[in-house]
Amino acid sequence: MQKVIRRTALARNQAQRKANLAAKERQREEFKSALRERFAFNRMQLVLERNERERRRDDWMRGPLAPKRDSGLSENAYATLLPQFMNPPKVPKHLRRKYINVAEGDRVCIMKGKDKGKIGKVRTVDEETETVTVENLNMVDVQFPDWLSEQYGSKRQFEPVPLPIPMDDVRLVVTLDDPVTGNAKDVLVKHVHAGEPILEREYGSKTPRHTRYIAGENIEIPWPTERPLQLKDEAWDTLRMEVETPTWMPSLLHSPFPPSVLDELRNKFSKYRTRHDPEFVEAKKMEDLKQEYLQSRTLLTPMGEFREMMRKKKEQRSKARLDADGNVVMDDETANFIDRFMKQNAEKKNTNAAS
Asked: Which CATH number applies to 73-247?
């Protein structure tokens, strides 16, 4: 039995090591893929900026002879960005922030880019790419297909939309009371940390459940107030009357769920289960009868009878040495030895005291 237990433990540990190695390898592949996407995204931006610088220098050098670039096939989409710029690369799951301290409706200040120093309200927060969009800030013209523009009722090939901004390039703007003057003023928060209490939110809420504080000051930053969900009845919604109509009545003749569900909820062969299948009960009875039969066969042999007799005699001798309270009674030989030993020690002490 010990060999089986040891073999099982070794197999379990080996499987756990393989799972850990596979998880690390998967994380490395995700990290490599994210790096490739990030490099491609940055390369696309650098190429676009370099081309624009070259065109601007060429126009300056040519002066009145500069070509008219907003013509031809790109006449209506000149100086616009491709839709790929609206989808920055995703951050691998094991490298994402544990807590997102920015929510929709927060006021933030942009720290980089053409709108550096401007304050606006957060429009959307993307946890996968760790970016935010700010209303009416960092606006760019993005090309859209004709079919997509027609859906929004526009005939142009481009639309001004806010470009996603990394969370590290924005700072929260919090209104605090000045302890000297007592007036409220806006403060840029450089570092924000998350902590308890962890609150419960309503269904569909996008506000994080944790509480955020100003690092070093332990001042709580309140979350923006969310607008209540505007629920609208549609033609495909289930009627309330159909939902509240009882379609099942409890009965003692039938179980409320199939027997297979019970096997999924609790181990089919659990010792804590009070009801088992008849086949399982019969198998257990046969095992008990087999054990009794094997034990009776060992007793029928001469060696088995001798061992059983010696075992009973040993139990009788052990019980005979116990008193009424169940304690072991000391025999006369041991008591005499202790008595002699104590007398010898007493004589030695008297001799040493006299000398």
From this structure: 2.30.30.30
